[in-house]
């Protein structure tokens, strides 16, 4: 049984890893297609039908470009920076529940790599580690623009993680658990989705997710108009590709996390009323979950080509003087409403 369990988890890890890389790869194409749609022009359309092979061409370009390490760079940390960024991005998906369990030959197979009882804290731990990859790359490059980008990334991450954590506290007051699998299972009905009881918390969490992923309008760490290219100014070839991949993986995982925490995850309306087997319900739930994720990814891209970039003082003002007070207010309101509700039920 132990061997079968380990084999199941290894297969699931490989499948999730491959899906994550494929979605990150084709997010680069979707980004440019969305930009073309919003700017009334064609996106990439030369490589393959409708540009479907463009990500493969981009990947080949990264692999075959010259590896350059600046003369004054710290070589070990210069290489370690993008590696740490991509590793932390990939392991953050380990606790995402992708669907209900499958029943194969009488054996229940969970579609979640690890349903740990401190899943939300795990996410925060991984997010906190991710910024070290940016910091190492920016400092080891021995370039003032890279260092400034790394410092911006660190201070931005610290500022917005506080508001994100406070927003999640309100959600945990409602759900009563840190276990991501339990949080999703509690949202089994459409009316039970957490977005209905925590709309303000969701808006705060989503705003902080944009900042944590360094997406517009929070892309100050790689602001090309001020810092050439930001923390990856000195990077080329696949090391630059790893930084770009990690950003798109973070966007994918953030979308999956928002869908799980606030929009029911793999749950969909009337799923309990369908006269289907458990396996079919699970398959439909996985498809619905990925549709929710793709919706959030599209929103990330839509915002990029719609809103201008903040100034750095505006970014800090929003994080410390607006989002954190709003998150604290949301905690107080959640506590008051919960007390009133409990006293009414008694």
Automatic annotation (TrEMBL):
Membrane topology: Multi-pass membrane protein
Domain of life of the native organism: Bacteria
Enzyme Commission code: 7.1.1.-
Pfam families tied to this protein: NADHdh (PF00146)
Catalytic activity field: a quinone + NADH + 5 H(+)(in) = a quinol + NAD(+) + 4 H(+)(out)
Transmembrane segments annotated in the record for this chain: 6-29, 76-99, 119-141, 162-181, 193-211, 248-268, 280-302, 322-340
Key words of the record: Cell membrane, Membrane, NAD, Quinone, Translocase, Transmembrane, Transmembrane helix, Ubiquinone
Free-text function comment from the UniProt entry: NDH-1 shuttles electrons from NADH, via FMN and iron-sulfur (Fe-S) centers, to quinones in the respiratory chain. The immediate electron acceptor for the enzyme in this species is believed to be ubiquinone. Couples the redox reaction to proton translocation (for every two electrons transferred, four hydrogen ions are translocated across the cytoplasmic membrane), and thus conserves the redox energy in a proton gradient. This subunit may bind ubiquinone.
NCBIfam families in UniProt: PRK06076.1-2
Record note on quaternary structure: NDH-1 is composed of 14 different subunits. Subunits NuoA, H, J, K, L, M, N constitute the membrane sector of the complex.
Assigned protein family: Belongs to the complex I subunit 1 family.
Name of the protein in question: NADH-quinone oxidoreductase subunit H
Species name: Sphingobacterium thermophilum
Gene designation per UniProt: nuoH_2
């Amino acid at each position: 049984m132990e061997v079968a369990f380990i084999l199941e988890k290894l297969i699931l890890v490989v499948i999730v890893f491959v899906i994550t890389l494929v979605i990150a790869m084709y997010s680069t194409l979707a980004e440019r297609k969305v930009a073309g749609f919003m700017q009334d022009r064609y996106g990439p359309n030369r490589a393959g039908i409708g540009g479907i092979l463009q990500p493969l061409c981009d990947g080949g370009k990264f692999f075959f470009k010259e590896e350059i390490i600046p003369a004054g760079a710290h070589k070990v940390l210069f290489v370690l920076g993008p590696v740490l960024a991509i590793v932390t991005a990939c392991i953050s998906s380990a606790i995402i529940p992708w669907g209900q369990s499958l029943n194969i030959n009488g054996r229940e197979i969970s579609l979640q790599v690890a349903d740990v009882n401190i899943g939300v804290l795990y996410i925060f731990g991984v997010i906190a580690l991710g910024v070290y990859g940016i910091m190492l790359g920016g400092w080891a490059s021995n370039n003032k623009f890279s260092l400034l980008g790394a410092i911006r990334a660190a201070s931005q991450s610290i500022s917005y993680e506080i508001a994100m954590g406070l927003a999640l506290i309100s959600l945990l007051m409602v759900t009563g658990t840190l276990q991501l699998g339990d949080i999703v299972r509690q949202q089994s009905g459409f009316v039970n989705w957490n977005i209905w009881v925590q709309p303000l918390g969701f808006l705060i969490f989503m705003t902080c997710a944009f900042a944590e992923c360094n997406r517009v309008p929070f892309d100050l760490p790689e602001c090309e108009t001020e810092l050439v290219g930001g923390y990856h100014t000195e990077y080329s070839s696949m090391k630059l590709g790893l930084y770009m991949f990690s950003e798109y993986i973070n966007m994918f995982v953030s979308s999956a996390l928002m869908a799980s925490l606030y929009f029911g995850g793999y749950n969909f309306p009337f799923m309990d009323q369908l006269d289907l087997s458990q396996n079919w319900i699970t398959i439909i739930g996985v498809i619905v979950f990925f549709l929710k994720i793709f919706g959030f990814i599209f929103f990330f891209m839509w915002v990029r080509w719609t809103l201008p970039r903040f100034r750095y003082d505006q970014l800090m003002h929003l994080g410390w003087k607006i989002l954190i007070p709003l998150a604290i207010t949301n905690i107080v309101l959640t506590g008051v409403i919960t007390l009133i509700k409990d006293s009414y039920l008694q």
